[in-house]
Amino acid sequence: MFSFFRKGQAHAKPVIPNDVKPARSIATERAVSPPPVVAPPAPPPPPEKTPKTPDNTGIQVLEMELLLAPEIEQAVMLYANGRTGEATATLNRYILDHPNTIDTQPWCLLFDIYEITGQRRPFEDLAVDFAVRFERSPPTWSTLQPVETGKAASRHPTFAFGPNLSPQDKAGLEHFHQECETAETVILDFSKTPVPGDDAYARLMLDNLTRSVAKGKEVHLVGGEAFVVRLNASRSVGHLTESTWLLLLMLLQLQARHHEFDEVAVEYAIRYEISPPSYTAPKHISTLPEALALESSPTGHTFPMKGVLGAGSSSVFEELRTFATPLPSVEVDLTQVIRIDFAIVGLLMDAVMGLAQAGKQVVFRGGNSMVNLLLQMLGVGQFATIQQETRK
Questions:
Q1: Which end of the chain is more exposed for a tag (fewer CB within 10 A), N or C?
Q2: What are the C-alpha distances in Å from 353 to residues 238, 260, 333?
Q3: Residue 61's CB: how many other CB atoms inside 10 A?
């Protein structure tokens, strides 16, 4: 029996109808209505006071009402719960149901999801529709930057899976396994890997992952979290083959995402009516070798985060507190963050509020539209600055 939790779907807010007054004839209105009274001009409003926290620490808390359509809120919550396919469908349906809106926000959210999950064709189709609807240039595709793999990476056997396996790639893969014999750490790059349309290619990826793990190597997955997002998006619309289901389970296991593994395993068992693979905690948790982590290490007053911030990311907030202790301000770089899981938002809010109460200025920058909108919905903007970058 597998223990797992299924995330709940965000509920749309109920619409409260305006009070409806009984209709009256024009003659009745003239008979009963008193003559109009001209009101004196209103006095100027008093000057605003600087808001403070209840303990008078001087921290400004700006009350901001975020007005969003219920469908947009629902899409953000679905994405935060890892239900990317449903979030995509919700946004597409909203755009179709509102053909006359001039609001580009749902479009920008969709562009980000397609880009994060590597769906270039839907991105380009949406760009054409955007240009027709708004009569201006659409956003352009920008591939997520993979983890740096330069000279430092050359000391570790590395193989990158592309859209397919060419004859040159087959030779490179064989050479990769020869190098693995004497290496302790190996790197498999999925940053440019779409969901395999060829089941044989999915089996090959699965076999090579299994082969690397069986040798007792520390396996680092470059772009592994984004690849899982793409696989989950296909799973939500029923496009995974049995091999890609097993590939998804292997990747979740290597990333020590136990609860997500259990959820996917149960769905796999129901779909194929067979016992699913059992979760085995990886002997070597997939971590970035120190030499490769230099580009994403905290420097100055910038603290970078990356990947999916989920249940296994709780330590990053304690690291943020420690990093910010001697600083008057800290900038949290979200450029490489794919998603903030709803399960972690409590720890995120605790960290931000703690820094604000300590007199720190906190700025979040570089986040994608889904991440930034979730931060705003949670009220993070009351304690920190959220810099939204406009897509070009």
A1: N
A2: 41, 29, 18
A3: 14
Scanning the structure block, which residue is given the tokens 């296909």? 234
- Residue 173 neighbours by CB under 8 Å, 6+ apart: 159, 165, 208
CA distance 115 to 41: 54
Is residue 13 in some structural domain?
no
Q: pLDDT tens digits, residue range 146-204?
A: 433 333 333 567 788 888 877 767 777 877 777 777 777 778 888 778 898 888 999 99
Report the distance separating Cα 47 and Cα 229, nearest Å. Answer: 49
Partners of 364 in beta bridges: 332, 386
CB-based contact 240:231 (threshold 8 Å): yes
Domain that holds residue 250: 151-272
| Distance separating alpha carbons of residues 106 and 87, to the nearest angstrom | 11
Report the amino acid identity of residue 124. E
Place of tokens 């008093």: 46
Q: Please name the residue that has the structure tokens 């997939």.
A: 286
Tell me which of 81, 107, 134 is where a domain ends. Answer: 134
Whose CA is closest to 192, among 215, 169, 216, 210?
A: 169
Q: Let me know if residue 222 belongs to a domain.
A: yes
Structure tokens at 369: 């539209």
- pTM (2 d.p.): 0.51
Neighbours of 74 (CB within 10 A): 21
| Neighbouring residues of 332: CB distance < 8 A, sequence distance ≥ 6 | 302, 303, 304, 305, 320, 362, 363, 364, 365
Three-class SS state of 225: helix
Mean pLDDT, rounded, for 356-361: 94
